[in-house]
Amino acid sequence: MNLDHYAPCQVIDCHIHYRHPSQMDHLMRVCDALSIERLNIVCTPDRARLSLVPDALHLKAHYPQRVFVFGGLDISSYFRAPERVGIMFAETLGFLAAAGCDGIKMIEGKPDMRKMLPIPPFDSPVFEPYWQKLAQMQMPLLFHVNDPEEFWDAARIPDWAAERGWYYGDGTFIDNERQYNEIFNILTQNPDLKVIFAHFFFLSAQLERLADLLERFPNICVDLTPGIEMYRNFSANIEKTREFFLRYQDRILFGTDIGAKALLSIPQTDIQLAESSERVTVIRNFLENPGEFQLRPDTGFLFGAPGVSFRGLGLPLSVLEKIYSRNYEWIVSPTPRTVDGRVVIEMCAQIEQALPSMGAGPAGAVADPSVACMVRSFFESRI
To answer: Please, which residues have CB within 8 angstroms of residue 255's CB and are 6 or more apart in sequence?
Structure first.
């Protein structure tokens, strides 16, 4: 990847995964190589360790001006007290913010997660205290809702997605339209919510519908994090897509999903520069270069079959600057919150205390307090 070919913009990647402190040096080298000046770590649940938030705050403590953290919620609450999750999550928000989290990440809207966890309807009264508190605090939420619409269609789902168990059309998963309706109800009831919908809200093939939502709810944004189906949909009518990007240039954020392959791999792997570079290359080519481009034959994880032509937008520099950094600074902040080591110590102690009672998690994952213990010791040594 030759970065000299790309626009001279400051870049904030709003959507990076970070699985373990052992990835720290490699992740930052990857970001340096790809000219990602600031990065947002989005924390997903972990079967063996309950939470990856301590890992992310430990990284942030090493790079306090460069790293943002969107903390994850304690999904054990869905099992322990499903009728009180909204109250419990609302109480958690202040704790996460005090620890140094800049926002919240929810992956609970991904259909396989929705099936795995006993999640009440998002628009039910159970959740309302949580949405109200998020809006009151103006704490931004990066929300994964649904998946590509073809994942519900046996004739259209890509082989790589079916192999991962992401076919949702057998009647045992939530319908994507039902879940969209839940989210629309939440936004209507809580119009001050600040939400970044991951993966273009999986509406890249329905730009008119997305435009209507952006008009109705001025505090919502979308990110450009692949699935590659997004870029196929964009390329199918590039003139219409370019018009959309120009009209909503203030509502689109740059994101890559760097670290997703390492997060999902069993056994654990490190973050790879080549695979991360392909993600950045696809998005920057699409945004900056007019005309056709293709993925390399050995292209990366979750990109599907190579050899498909894509088309780029050739956006003006003023628009690129918004997408690459300014829109993130508007909806989140120009600078990360400060990490409070004392609060992180308390968080780690709570995780260490909770893990033994979990025993073996789903799929036989054995409770592992090692990172929480290490992070607690790290912050204790700094006080």
So the answer is: 13, 14, 15, 16, 40, 198, 223, 224, 225
